Amino acid sequence: MTLLHVDTVSRFFGGLKAVDQVSFEMESGTIMGLLGPNGSGKTTLLNLISGFLAPSSGKIIFNGRNLAGARVDKIARAGIARTFQLVRILPSLTLLENVMLPAVFGHRAHWGKEAERVAHAALQKTGLGDRANASAGDLNYIDQKRLELARALAAEPELLLLDEWLAGLNPTELQEGIRLIESLSGSGITIIMVEHIMEAVRALCPRCAVMNAGRLIADGETSTVLSDKAVIAAYLGDAEYA
Amino acid sequence: MIRLAIALLALAALAVLPRFVSEYELGLLIGMASYVALASAWALFSGHTHYISLATVAFYGTGAYTVAVLNESLPYPAVLLCAALIGAAMALLVGLSTLRLSGIYFVIFTFGLAELVRQLITWYEVSITGTLGRYIFLDLTARDIYWQMLALAAIAIGLTAWINRTRLGLALRAIGDDEVVAAHSGIHLARTKLVAFTISATLITLVGAVGSPRWVYVEPLIVFNPTVSFLTVIMALLGGANRLWGPLVGAIPLFLLFEWLSVNFPDTYPIFLGLMFIAVVFVLPNGVLAGLDDLRAWLGRRGK
């Protein structure tokens, strides 16, 4: 079943085409890597899907409904959760409260014991289970990243958008992170991950798409895409490979 | 449960207090109850969201003026009801147009709002009704007013305690930390802020209405005095605006201090007000209660 259909979506900032006529579909339960050089429009595309920005044109059809231009909270309640490239946690709340938010206000909108159960389960999954009542402001960078993922999971999303969630992890943490995403994908959540770490993309994503200067220049099986000449040129510069 | 019992006992004790005090002291009690109610009601919205509203006196003055206009034509409970409805309607209107503003723009707008309301009423009175000042003759004793004000303060604190336990409370705290994350968690930002702002503003309007018979003579310059807005903010911040009892802890000593200053230094006391404001923001940005917690934690670490 098609969960997400991004249909000729564009976003302009003045004269800059940050996202230019991008189209792709995703089946429910699949995982896709989204690659491309800095400034190629990956994060903007995630922002368009999560509603942080409204598209200048095009449709974003999720579960049969066009969500293009809908309010952020409405899109969140429809079942799309995300993490941010620059970690955003709520420092004055406890870990549990951070994670309670999407459980309470999100896709399933639980309250009371059930919300706490969902929140605790999300903290457990990301290895923060024993610190539920600590203050989020006291966490180190890696744990903040974990908390952000836990928050996204507590929304019980159908589609999860990860914006360089693995960046900045040391080799051990990276392996842990890859295993975690693998288990999420295995549990049926559809995932789009923006990522620069090729090792992770190869390990996790059978499919990947590549953006350059706002356009989708490749989309297909990961090993094929990564050996594509246009993709290599986009990453390393045109002069050598064009 | 024990906390609730203590709070109710304290409230009962405060309610019988007028039997044992002089007329002047009763006046002080009314003033304290007013500012506890104002600061608590203000913090109900601004404490968690960090939207600093300087519109307190816009609502406070509107409440007082509603009583001044209606006190001869309607029974007193109906006058209060009208004041509450007018305050709520005004808050909805203001909220819908401003709560999309963030940070400093919201502060500036709310400050301008108080001035706008004052000028509008002045213009209306002068050019339509042909009067400027109005008299309030109500058959209420100082004790009646004290009890009503005490009830308002209790309602403001009780309502805050209740909201803190609800979805609304959680949403307001999330908004105060990061609106983007709050929205991405599924929180309807505009609606959440509007609900809290309206509850807060309605309570503030009622404080103005209940306190107004004390003025006897009311005119825009008196009841729309911006000092009320600033005092409310300083009191809430001093105690700790995001704590349930913070506004109360800030309001009582500051009210007494300013009462003393305005009696002894009638010309220079606004200077002290300004200095106080600066000192609170610099020294205790999170309030006395948070400061005490920090101190306790520091002593605990030293003790080890």
UniProtKB/TrEMBL annotation, chain A:
- Keyword line: ATP-binding, Nucleotide-binding, Transport
An example of a Pfam family matching this protein is ABC_tran
GO MF assignments? ATP binding
- Alphabetical list of Gene3D superfamilies matching this protein: P-loop containing nucleotide triphosphate hydrolases
Span of domain ABC transporter: 4-238
Task: List where this protein forms a coiled coil.
Answer: none
The yes or no answer to whether the keyword Transcription is present is no
Q: Does the keyword Transport apply?
A: yes
SMART domains, per database record: AAA (SM00382)
What InterPro entries does the entry give? AAA+_ATPase (IPR003593), ABC_AA/LPS_Transport (IPR051120), ABC_transporter-like_ATP-bd (IPR003439), BCA_ABC_TP_C (IPR032823), P-loop_NTPase (IPR027417)
* Record protein name field: ATP-binding cassette domain-containing protein
Automatic annotation (TrEMBL), chain B:
Stored CDD domains: TM_PBP1_LivM_like
- UniProt keyword terms in alphabetical order: Cell membrane, Membrane, Transmembrane, Transmembrane helix
As for subcellular location, the record says: Cell membrane
Name of one Pfam family that matches: BPD_transp_2
Residues annotated as transmembrane: 28-45, 52-70, 76-96, 103-125, 145-163, 194-211, 217-238, 245-263, 269-292
Q: How does it sit in the membrane?
A: Multi-pass membrane protein
Name this polypeptide is given: Branched-chain amino acid ABC transporter permease
